[in-house]
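TICKET: design request
STATUS: open
ATTACHED STRUCTURE:
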């Protein structure tokens, strides 16, 4: 089955051609990073306009790169939630138009399910059930992937996402957007024991997380140093912050693995590219005798190939849509509107 997949939930316009959920025939991406770097973060209105400008040409490029004609497409898939609403709407409306014009199936895909499916492209041998840690700019969750379309959220952040905290701290430190990647590079030369940062715990669900206190503590430390004209050891602060985030994530993932008895752990989302988190998760999984699947950096960020991969399994489960499909800024990975 050949699927034309579209992703436009944030600042990457992407169109891919994926076969049977596991083989990428083409993956074309138009990045807006340099444009939004001028503003220190994504400007929603600009992102939406740039998606409109890029998406048609990108779709033609993906088909050409894949050596596939429009007639050979079996279905059109698209990210319909969550994301910047204007940006998501561009992709949804484009996908609906293509599906209608070509008389093809339309498959809606949840963005986070797509991130999980990126692992199917990187590791063809990976099949559910497995545990997945999703860490991105807007989401932090521990998910029990029981089947390709059947999932249970075991733990989640109660406030900020890990990726959001990385980006905010990096921006205050004057690092270029996207801040998380820049902070990770600087942290390599730092002493993570130099700055003491909190690791909050949830009183209710031990698998839930809270990053707002950690973010505030780091920002207060930076602002205090500025006010008293004290020189910050930036590499050490970055290392300390990365260590604190990892200490929030890894023990909870370990607890979830032990509670569920799962022996396979996948990681998904942009923060999955963080070197400290990757290293700590690998070490933890090895001690437990669990297999860990860390996608290559190219599949950690937003891309359409992951949407095409998950779309194949959504189609097999009968999850298709008609022209009534709408876009949503927020929606649970389980399908509930938030």
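STATUS: resolved
RESOLUTION: sequence designed for all positions
ATTACHED SEQUENCE:
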């Amino acid at each position: 089955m050949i699927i034309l997949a579209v992703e436009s939930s944030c600042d990457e316009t992407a169109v891919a051609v994926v076969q049977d959920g596991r083989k990428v025939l083409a993956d074309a991406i138009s990045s807006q990073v340099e444009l939004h770097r001028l503003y220190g973060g994504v400007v929603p209105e600009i992102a939406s306009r740039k998606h409109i400008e890029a998406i048609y040409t990108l779709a033609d490029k993906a088909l050409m790169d894949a050596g596939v004609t429009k007639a050979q497409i079996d279905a059109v898939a698209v990210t319909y939630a969550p994301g910047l609403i204007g940006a998501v709407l561009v992709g949804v409306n484009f996908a609906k138009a293509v599906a209608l014009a070509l008389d093809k199936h339309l498959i809606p895909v949840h963005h986070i399910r797509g991130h999980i499916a990126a692992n199917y492209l990187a590791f063809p041998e990976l099949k559910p059930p497995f545990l997945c840690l999703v860490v991105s700019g807007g989401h932090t969750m521990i998910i029990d992937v029981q089947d390709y379309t059947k999932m249970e959220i075991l733990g989640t952040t109660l406030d900020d996402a890990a990726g959001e905290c990385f980006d905010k701290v990096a921006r205050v430190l004057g690092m270029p957007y996207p801040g998380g990647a820049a902070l990770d590079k600087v942290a390599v030369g730092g002493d993570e024991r130099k700055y003491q940062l909190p690791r909050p715990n949830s009183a209710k669900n031990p698998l839930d997380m809270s990053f707002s206190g950690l973010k505030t503590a780091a920002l207060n430390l930076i602002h205090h140093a500025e006010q008293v004209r004290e020189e910050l050891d930036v590499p050490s602060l970055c290392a300390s912050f990365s260590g604190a985030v990892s200490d929030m994530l890894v023990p909870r993932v370990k607890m979830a693995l032990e509670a569920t008895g799962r022996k396979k752990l996948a990681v998904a989302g942009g923060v999955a590219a963080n070197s400290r988190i990757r290293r700590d998760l690998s070490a933890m999984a090895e001690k437990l005798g669990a297999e860990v699947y860390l996608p290559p950096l190219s599949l950690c960020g937003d891309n359409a190939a992951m949407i095409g991969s998950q779309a194949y399994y959504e189609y097999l489960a009968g999850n298709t849509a008609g022209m009534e499909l709408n876009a949503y800024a927020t929606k649970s990975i389980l399908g509930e509107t938030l």
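CLOSING REMARK: Strands lie at 2-7, 12-19, 23-31, 75-81, 105-110, 130-135, 140-145, 151-156, 264-268, 291-293. Residues 199 and 247 are 7 Å apart (CA to CA).
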